[in-house]
Structures are given as structure tokens and as C-alpha cells.
Amino acid sequence: MNASPPSPQGPARPGAGLRFPRGLYGITPEWDDTGRLLQAIRAAARGGMTALQLRRKTVSLPFKHLQAREVRDLCAELGLVFILNDHWRLAQELGADGVHLGRDDGDLAAVRQNLGPQMLIGASCYGDLQRARQALADGADYLAFGAMFPSSSKPQATPASLDVLGQARALVQEQPAPRPGIVAIGGITPENAGQVLRAGADSLAMISGLFDAPDIEAAARRCTALLSGPQAP
């Protein structure tokens, strides 16, 4: 898989003027059954998902490495942007499209220096605009805010207000094109996704709201329709 992000002209990168693809951003649940996970990713992709983050917090690094290879290959087949959570060195080794960094996952500026300009880097900003400003200065391609709503995947997450999305939008509008994207995460479902889009998000990051849905493809389609509807920013 090519480490460079897909071309902005390709189907996986809608949203002109963004460095990270606007759209539905799936984040994997803690499933050890890789076959089940791959089937779920296919269903979400059929529903319009544009990017996927492999987020495994409860497995060994060797298992994560093996699962990541299969997920990477599927994302390449489906034209999905493939992001690995936490481990930028593994993301680089696998030829992922990017890495997502949380508060304890290393210095973003140093990671950017190691990875170069082509690899996508996302930054968890929680509800902190000052952290967002620093992430922009350090070269982040998207800023993730949340939890926007109570989250079953991360119940201890600190809530973030919807207002922070509008404030972040004003912040990134000052950036040269292609500008960083604004990702909303935490408790997002097809029922409440319109709220975060109206508040200023470019992308919807979803774990249980997508992968625990009775019909994953249908849930993805509902969110994709919202992303292209009149309430989208």
C-alpha cells in the first residue's frame, strides 16, 4: 500500500480543499475476530464510508500487527483511507495512509518530522482549542473533538460541547488550502449526526454507532446522506 494519501481526485477523498477526506470515518471496535471485522468494513464501505481507523487498545502488538496487515489490504482494495491508531512507527512500516495520535502517543511535531509531509496525521483535541492550535502548528491534517455525546466505547471520555466545532472551524479557516479537517467523535449515531454536522464537523467518526448497528451498511448510508445534505457545513 502506498504511504501517500490517495489523490484528491479519487473517490475516497470527497470534499475539495481538505487534507483529510470529508465523510464517514469508521473506527474499529475491539474485535479479535478479523474475519468478522473485515466483513463489517466491507458493509460500511458499501454504505459510503471514506476512511477507517484501526483502533485496538486491548491486544498485543504482534496481534495488532497481523490484524493491521489484513485491514490495510482491504482498505487498499476498497479505496478507503487507512489510519492506524497510536503507533506511528507501525503505521510507517505498514505503509498506512496515516496515524492518529492521542494525548499520550508522542509529540506530533516530532512524528511529523519522522514521517514527512505525505503521511496523514490526526490529533485528538478533546474539547481543547489550545491543543488544536498547537496541533495545527505541528502539522496535523485533521483535528478530532469529542466526546460529543456519551460513548459506550469510551464511557470515561470527557464531554466536549458542540460549540467547540464551530470555534474549530473558524480556526482552520485561517489555514492555507488544503485545510485540515474537523472530525467529531464520541457517541455519534445516525440519529444525532446531523447536530455535529450543523455545528461544524467535516467528518463523523463512529465506532459502536456504526459497527454495532443491526445493519451496518444501512447505518453508513444514513450518515453518508446527512453528509451530503443541506445541513452539511
Primary descriptors:
38% helix; 8-stranded parallel beta barrel; 9 helices; TIM Barrel; 233 residues
* Distance, first to last CA: 32 Å
**How many discrete domains?**
1
**Roughly how many Å is the radius of gyration?**
16 Å
CATH topology: TIM Barrel
Beta content comes to 15-25%
- Assign the CATH class: Alpha Beta
Anisotropy-based shape:
globular
| Helix count, DSSP H or I runs of 4 or more residues | 9
CATH architectural category: Alpha-Beta Barrel
Strand order of the largest sheet: 1-2-3-4-5-6-7-8
According to DSSP, the number of beta strands is 8
What structural category arises from helix and sheet content?
Answer: alpha/beta
Spans of at least 5 consecutive residues whose pLDDT stays below 50 are 1-14
On the 0-100 scale, what is the average pLDDT?
91
